[in-house]
Write a structure and sequence with these properties.
The complex is a heterodimer. Chain A is mainly alpha-helical. Chain A has 15 helices and no strands. Chain A has helices spanning about 5-30, 35-45, 50-60, 65-80, 90-125, 130-145, 150-165, 175-205, 210-215, 220-230, 235-250, 250-255, 260-270, 275-305, 305-310. Chain A is flat. Chain B is of the alpha/beta class. Chain B has a single domain (about 10-270), classed as P-loop containing nucleotide triphosphate hydrolases (Rossmann fold), CATH 3.40.50.300. Chain B has helices at about 50-55, 80-90, 110-120, 125-140, 155-170, 185-205, 215-220, 240-245, 250-270; strands at about 10-20, 25-35, 40-45, 65-70, 75, 95, 175-180, 205-210, 225-230, 230-235. In chain B, strands 6-7-8-3-9-10 form a 6-stranded mixed β-sheet, sandwiched between helices. A 4-stranded antiparallel β-sheet of chain B has the order 2-1-4-5, covered by helices on one side. The interface of A and B includes residues 211, 214, 215 and 230 of A.
């Protein structure tokens, strides 16, 4: 089956979904109990008199009908204009673009770390199933899952930055500053995926085709390769959810390591009730989730021919 | 058996034991199998037929181990290193598994799996492996399109024949077929049994057929091993065992088979009944 037509079909199916997402991220903000005009006045340290509110409402276009406001916003958003911040009137899109590279850098490093470590750990677990390396790894995985990120981060700072003085405690200053936040961020994911992949591979090992490959005298490496590819499904589905979370949910880690990223931008905006920023963030994250899921579905389809056929039916 | 040459496979007082509890699962199995001959192993499910084959292949489940003597050609299988045993599997001892539908990796085309195995086992280049795979398929009367098919696109009978094609391409000196006909319909069963016959006659391969289907075994086997609850209750020349079963269990097996086929043949309008 042709993978190209599969991708085109999935992309077309995405359009209505994206439209619905944009609508809901707009509606959710509109449903919030505070009046945007009032908020806009307050954050600029002015007193919201009824006249002033009416004036600002007109200026912000809040007096227009709901649907018209949505369409204007959507049109602007499609053209890359996500409105202006209430706090300082700067362009939301501009501020987000500034915060995005550090976040993406951190997320990408964590993702690479997570993939490398969890795959390696899963292989060790399968090769030494039930023996001490496997048991040791299972203990570490248990530890990694149960330790909260902020605590692990603080411990790492204490050990590597304060005690050993090898790495900076925080901030964005060259590659070495990336190490601690990336490790902290990746730790729970490494545990989760190492366990998921290991268990999946241990199950696949019991399958009939593995026995047949061994009965044909295939080498250990070849048999492992077949086991690995057949065990990827659940991890790929999980990655579709985890990768956008790495971008979205870095707030705690960004705070601990004073990292100038997207998570901090959004949480600051929430405290200020800076609606355009929150709206843009919600939209960005939703789109990211949808796209990552699509990517993982495509990866799954590339791995498994049966999924390609089902996707085309 | 009247042959004087050393047998291809020899088992002497083989026991298969549960390692932790020491509980024996298969007791005292002995047989010798020569080139070009066929041994049938029959018995109810759970009687240890499959375990005997897996002990020979060196692929017992981790919780079990075998004792006694198992020799394949010159190799002592119970003392051979895992690497030695692995090298013998495939080219020395080919296998036909019980469930053809799950015997191939669902994510690769059969062509990929054939060529991959042939390249590794016979040290061939890609083109030669491809040609050999196609030759194997033609031997079992499968079209070349099978090379580009995924396992889920083929029927159980076709996949069964794919496994036979692979043993043909590998030129396995011994073929171990575990329940080769149970997953197949009658027409496919007959076809597969014909293939096995030709495998013996044309390639001089030895054959071990494990089955609870006496009909299939009777069509192929020269000698017979009857298993009941982990014990070998009867062994010997196939014709003798079929015509004059000594042990009550064998008598029961042969008897029920006669009763079954009698009903079957009556339904077909035949009067003649033979064992």
């Amino acid at each position: 089956m042709n993978i190209g037509s599969y991708i085109v079909r999935r992309l077309l199916g995405l359009l209505p979904l994206l439209l619905a997402i944009s609508f809901f991220s707009f509606v959710i903000i509109q449903l919030s109990p505070s009046d945007p005009a009032e908020v806009a006045i307050r954050v600029n340290a002015m007193t919201p008199t009824p006249e002033l509110i009416a004036e600002v409402r007109e200026e912000m276009g809040l007096d227009k009908p709901f649907l018209e406001r949505y369409l204007t916003w959507l049109n602007n958003a499609v053209h890359g204009d996500l409105g202006k911040r209430y706090v300082d009137g700067k362009s939301v899109a501009g501020e987000m673009l500034k915060a995005l590279p550090p976040t993406l850098m951190l997320a990408a490093t964590s993702a690479a770390l997570m993939l490398a470590c969890s795959i390696a750990a899963a292989f060790v677990g399968v090769l030494f199933e039930g023996r001490w390396p496997d048991l040791l790894l299972r203990g570490l995985i248990f530890l990694g899952t149960s330790v909260p990120a902020f605590w692990a981060g603080l411990l790492l700072i204490w050990l590597f930055a304060v005690h050993l003085d090898l790495l900076p405690t925080g901030g964005l200053s060259g590659p070495s500053s990336l190490v601690l936040p990336a490790v902290t961020l990746a730790l729970p994911y490494i545990s989760a995926y190492a366990r998921l992949l290991r268990n999946s591979m241990v199950q696949t090992k019991q399958q009939n085709f593995v026995l047949y490959a061994k009965a044909c005298g295939r080498s250990r490496g070849a048999v492992l390769r077949h086991i690995f590819r057949n065990s990827l499904q659940s991890s790929l589905t999980g990655l579709g959810m985890s990768l956008p979370k790495l971008v979205a949910g870095t707030f705690v880690v960004e705070c601990i390591f004073a990292w100038p990223g997207l998570g901090r931008l959004c949480v600051t905006a929430i405290f200020n009730r800076d609606f355009p920023v929150i709206q843009a963030y919600v939209l960005l994250m939703a789109v990211l989730f949808v796209l990552c899921n699509l990517c993982m579905d495509i990866c799954s389809a590339l791995v498994d021919p049966r999924l390609r056929e089902r996707g085309l039916q | 058996m009247s042959c004087t040459e050393t047998p291809l496979v020899r088992m002497e007082h083989v026991r298969i034991v549960h390692t932790d509890s020491g509980r024996p699962i298969v007791n005292d199995v002995s047989f010798a199998l020569h080139r070009g001959h066929c041994l049938g192993i029959v018995g109810e499910s759970g009687s240890g037929k499959t375990l005997i084959c897996r002990a020979l292949l060196g692929l017992l489940p981790p919780a079990l181990h075998a004792e006694g003597v198992i020799r394949f050609e010159e190799t002592d299988m119970l003392r051979a290193s895992p690497e030695e045993a692995r090298r013998l599997r495939g080219t020395g001892m080919g296998s036909i598994l019980q469930q053809p539908m799950t015997a191939f990796d669902p994510l690769y085309t059969l062509g990929d799996q054939f060529t991959e195995t042939l390249r590794e086992k016979l040290q061939l280049n890609a083109a030669d492996a491809d040609a050999l795979a196609r030759f194997g398929l033609s031997q079992v009367k499968l079209p070349e399109t099978v090379m580009k098919s995924y396992p889920h696109q083929l029927s159980g009978g076709m996949l069964q024949r794919c496994m036979i094609a692979l043993t043909l391409a590998l030129r396995s000196r011994l073929v171990v077929a575990d329940e080769p006909t149970t997953a197949l319909d009658a027409a496919n069963q007959y076809e597969v049994l014909q293939r096995f016959r030709r495998l013996r006659e044309e390639h001089d391969a030895a054959l071990i057929v494990v089955s609870h289907d006496l009909g299939a075994v009777q069509m192929l086997a020269d000698s017979l091993l009857v298993m009941c609850r982990g014990h070998c209750v009867e062994a010997g020349d196939a014709e003798t065992v079929f015509n004059a079963p000594q042990h009550p269990y064998t008598q029961y097996l042969v008897g029920t088979r006669l009763a079954l086929t009698r009903g079957f043949r009556r339904a077909l309008g035949e009067n003649h009944v033979s064992a």
